[in-house]
Amino acid sequence: MLPAEVLKAIRLIQIRTNRMVNDILAGEYHSVFKGQGMEFDEVREYVPGDDIRLIDWNVTARTSVPHIKKLVEERELTVMLMVDASGSGRFGSVNRFKNELAAELCAVMAFSAIKNNDKVGLMIFTDQVELYVPPEKGRRHILRIIREVMYFAPKGHGTNIEEALHYMNGVVKRKAVAFLVSDFMDDNYETPLRIAGRRHDLIAVTVTDPREEELPNIGMINVMDAETGREITINTSDSAVRRDYADDAKSRTVKRDEILKQSRVDSIHVRTDQPYIDEIHRFFKMRERRNAV
Questions:
Q1: Fewest CB within 10 angstroms: 113, 147, 197, 265, which?
Q2: Which residue segments constitute the domains of the chain, with CATH numbers given?
Q3: pTM for this entry
Q4: CA 278, CA 293: separation in Å to the nearest integer?
């Protein structure tokens, strides 16, 4: 039995995301994420205009009347939420921490998946894979997924995207829709990202806070790297310091986006200071246009 305060927090997220899932994303989710192929439904008599490649020759020979196989899309999907729980996620300078934004976005995707009768699984990782919840269906399962994303207490502080991708490729055998939710403050994940992108429909969800892009002019401050524990003092009144900080941040972003592009991995970019629904819409519209070609 979940504690009352946990149930209340999950319920609040469900209320906040309910309209989004029901009125906005339900149709888009269904249209942009395709099933695993086609499966047999029934046999019916051939009518002019049917694809002759679908003729069932055994039934045709037995009945002396041409019959075809009727196929339907195998709609059920497996959705994997891969959530970075490293120390840098426990940061936010606006309305919420990055990990809180990640949790709400995961809730949106999980509730969208369950409305389409899809399975949802979860992986939480830091510098190691700390939790794996196999994909299942059902409301109780989804509530567990949301609870874990919101309240799981990781042991590690660092980030190892490479290890997380290797793990997923090992345990998820069939093609899945995988959302990799992270701030991508890591290196050496290009090759496993490319491999995972070929095996699965992999979407990178990048989570950013504005203070990671530029420093305010507020004088001397002490800052700590949440993943390594290293502390330094910075003079934010020095324009050169602020400029170098912004240049480094820009370089990281450019490198990350180039890696995603070269790996042919689609992306959703969300920020703690902006509504994430706009970025989700952008992603779905892009997918719809591409599927229509």
A1: 147
A2: 4-32+84-207+268-292 (3.40.50.410), 38-73 (no CATH)
A3: 0.81
A4: 23
